[in-house]
Every structure is written in structure tokens, then in C-alpha cells.
Amino acid sequence: MAEQPMPLWEVFIRSRNGLAHQHCGSVHAADAEMALHAARDVYTRRGEGLSIWVVPSAAIIASDPADKEVLFEPTASKIYRHPTFYTVPEEVGHM
Amino acid sequence: MYTQALNLHEAMEADDPVRRARFQARVDADEKIEPNDWMPAGYRRTLVRQISQHAHSEVVGMLPEGNWITRAPTLRRKAALLAKVQDEGGHGLYLYAAAETLGVTREELVDQLLAGAAKYSSIFNYPTLTWADIGMIGWLVDGAAIMNQIPLCRCSFGPYARAMIRICKEESFHQRQGYEIVLTLARGTPEQKAMAQDALNRWWWPALMMFGPSDKDSIHSAETMAWKIKRFSNDDLRQKFIDATVPQGRFLGLTFPDPELRFDEGSGHWRHGEIDWEEFKRVVAGNGPCNRERLAARRKAHREGAWVREAALAYAAKRKARRTSGPDVLPVAAE
Which one-letter DSSP state was computed for residue B303? Predict the structure, then answer.
């Protein structure tokens, strides 16, 4: 009998520096509890984090790379959204 | 998370000169290629082969070192070796995960290894006869691996590059702990120094072979260079390794088993004698000292773990069934 495939989970870790959970890789595990254990063993051997999330990979909805232009290109022309677009006289100092 | 659209790949990758040109332009601009991006079928195939071989090497690499965990000379050495072998297992898993983003399953990759259809680094088919071999593996084998892996951190395929960055960070302790072992032996009793010398004699040439065939015989190079999977040639990396390692060995007061090894003032490089490529071919073809033993150990571990995987899946299925049928249908006590 061929072996049943082991479900895939994505692993997110919040590091001790206060940043949000960040994707760091994936693990295979039969259930959520084992996925957490595996994630701990595989991705936190050197005190990398204070919190782990595991999410079934199939539950992630990703944008299609083919839509990249439609999704992200319009922001490239909106340079007025950045502080450097505006001039402040030097005398005013740092703002 | 990348496996949703896998069946589409074959259709998507029908050779398309426009897409191919766009892909190459992105690679040339040092952009990362991500799993769902269009890529030539050959790029995907090459990466699956390379990343999975790399993963298998990490996993099989646990065997020669695992051989000495119970016989490490001190608790400090034992803890370090245990941590190192765990790291190798972890590195194998990061790499399998990176290969899986290209549309192969973990099960397929493991089956290829167990069936003897997949290759792994030839170095792990040599035996670890004495404790000094553990030092040599850290110093030379991990040293050579790092030389190979640092350029891979800039590989064009995102998941592979990211896995390599993590691996390289962890790997530097491996080389240092190995060198420390060899240094201790080299400064020890005459017997200990002889043991270190014997180990260097046996590991030097196989370590040089880790960089693969000489450039004039290397079949995959041109394309993988253009795709920025590979950034330096086998011979260039080998030379870098020799230049870095020979002074370290001389500091130990050990000699390298190569009578032709000499420093070339003009180029600033250490020149070495001819590598025995027949030996390399023999080991890669499956006839090294430990090929059969290594595969047998992996098969045994996989076979003996089968019931655990089955039980874990059965338990997960049972819990899921209970959750969906509601808590009032099945008594909680049965948990």
C-alpha cells in the first residue's frame, strides 16, 4: 500500500525583537499539535522565536504572480505618497 | 502553499521564447524567481535535482557522525555532536521544503533516495573509523560544504536561496567545532596526533572531490551559470577551499597527503596534485566503502518509522471525525 501523504503546514515565527510573525518555512505533520512540535524542533533550535503559528498550507490564499502588474504597478506612479515628494526649507530643520 | 497549481506546470512550460526571454531578463537583473512564477522546464528540473540531492546529503550525512554520538570522549563533545547532527536533519528538512515548492512531493523525494535512484554527496560513503574523523568531517567536509553553499545564498530561486542563508548561518559552528577537535588531538599525545594525521590522510582527497568533476568534465555548468543557480565553477570553489584550508592544516602541524601540494607565489594559490577521478566515479556509482550500508540504514529507519506515521494520521483522522460529528455524539471520556 502506498503511504498516505503527510499534510503540509506553513510555519510563522515571532522573534524576540517585537516584530510580527514571519513566515520561515514549512513542515509535514499529521495534525496541528504535531505540526507545532515539528516547527519548534525544525525552526527554533537557537532561540529564534517566542511564538509559533502553524497554518495548513492549503488554507493560504495567494495572489497570482500573473496579476503582479495590475496589483502593484499603480502604486509606482504615486510618488506623492512618500515623504520625500515634499520640499521643506532647510531652515525649518528635520521634519 | 505553492502546490495548488502544480498540475498546470506542464502546460505552462511549453517552450515559449517570449516568456523565456522575460525569465532570463529577470534572472540577469538579479531578481528572485518564486515558485509560482513562470520558469523553463529545464530550470525546474535542474533545481529539483540539485535541491533534493542536497537534502539527501544532509540526511545521509547524519549517519557517519551519528556513529560517534555514544562514544564522544566528553560530555561537551557529545552535546556539540548531537546538536550538529540535529542541525543536519533540520537542514535536510529546509531543503526538502524548498524542493517541494517546485511541485514534487516529499514522499516522491524520499522514495527516490531509498530506491537508490537519487544521488547524494559522495563524501558520506566513507566510514568514520576513529574519533578524529568527526573532527575532520567538521573541519574539512563542512568547510567544503560552506564554500559551496555561500554562493547558493544568492541563487536565483528564492526558496533555495532563503534555505541556504539559514543553513550557512548554522553551519559555521560545525566547522569550528570540527577544527577544535582536530586541534585538541594535534596538541595531544603522539598517539592522538597520529590519529589526527591518519584521519586527514583519509579525508583530504574525498573532501576535494566534494566540489564535483573538474570544469573540463562538468556537464551542467553553462546553463546553471546562466540561470544563476550556480555562480562559481567547481574548480574555482575547490581552489578557494584549498587556499583557505592548507594554512589551517599547517597551523595544526599536520601534513596533507599530496606530495605535489605547493604554494605558487605568482598566482598566490596552493597548487595540488591530480585528483583520482576513478575513485570519485566509483563512489558516485554506488561502490564506495559505505554506499550499501548508508542506504540500508535509511531504508531501515524509514520502514521502522512507518507505523508511527500511520498511527499519527489515523489519530488525526479520528479526532477530526469526532470534531465534525459534534461533542454530544461521542463521549469525551473516550479521548
Answer: H
pLDDT, one tens digit per residue, over B135-146 is 999 999 999 999
Residue B197 to residues B43, B68, B82, B209, B255: CA-CA distances in angstroms? 43, 19, 24, 19, 7
In the stretch 250-279 of chain B, residues with CB closer than 8 A to chain A read none
Q: Which residues contact B233 (CB under 8 A, 6 or more apart)?
A: B215, B218, B221, B225
Q: Which residues pair with A28 in a beta bridge?
A: A8
Residue B3: predicted pLDDT:
44
CB contact under 8 A, B309 and A3: yes
For B43-80, how does the pLDDT look when each residue is reduced to its tens digit (9 = 90+)? 999 999 999 999 999 999 999 999 999 999 999 999 99
pLDDT tens, position by position, A80-90:
999 889 999 99
pTM for this structure?
Answer: 0.89
**What pLDDT is stored for residue B44 in this prediction?**
96
Question: Mean of the pLDDT values across residues B200-212?
Answer: 97
Cell numbers 607565489 correspond to B265
* Shortest alpha-carbon distance between residue A86 and chain B (Å): 30
User: What residues of chain B lie within 8 A of the CB of A31, using their CB?
Assistant: 312, 315-316, 319-320
Contact B228, B206 (CB under 8 A): no
Residues 49-88 of B with CB under 8 A from A: 83, 86-87
Mean pLDDT across B134-162? 96
* Residue B114 CB partners (closer than 8 Å, separation 6+): B295, B298, B299, B302
- Could you tell me if B29 and B156 are in contact, meaning their C-beta atoms sit under 8 angstroms apart? no
Distance CA B230, CA B241 (A): 16
Q: Would you say A10 and A60 are in contact if contact means Cβ atoms under 8 Å apart?
A: yes
| CB pair distance less than 8 Å for A65 and B94 | no
Question: What number of residues does chain B have?
Answer: 335
Q: Which of B87, B107, B310 faces A5 most closely, judged by CB atoms?
A: B107
Distance CA A20, CA B322 (A): 34
**pLDDT tens for each residue of A16-63:** 888 899 999 999 999 999 999 999 999 999 888 899 999 999 999 988
**C-alpha grid cell, residue B230:** 550556480
- Do B90 and A8 lie within an 8 Å CB cutoff? no
Q: To probe the interface with A, which of B313, B315, B322 has the most A CB atoms within 10 Å?
A: B313
User: Is residue B188 left, alpha or beta, with left meaning phi > 0 and alpha meaning psi from -120 to 50?
Assistant: beta
CB contacts, 8 Å: B106 with chain A: 5-6, 28
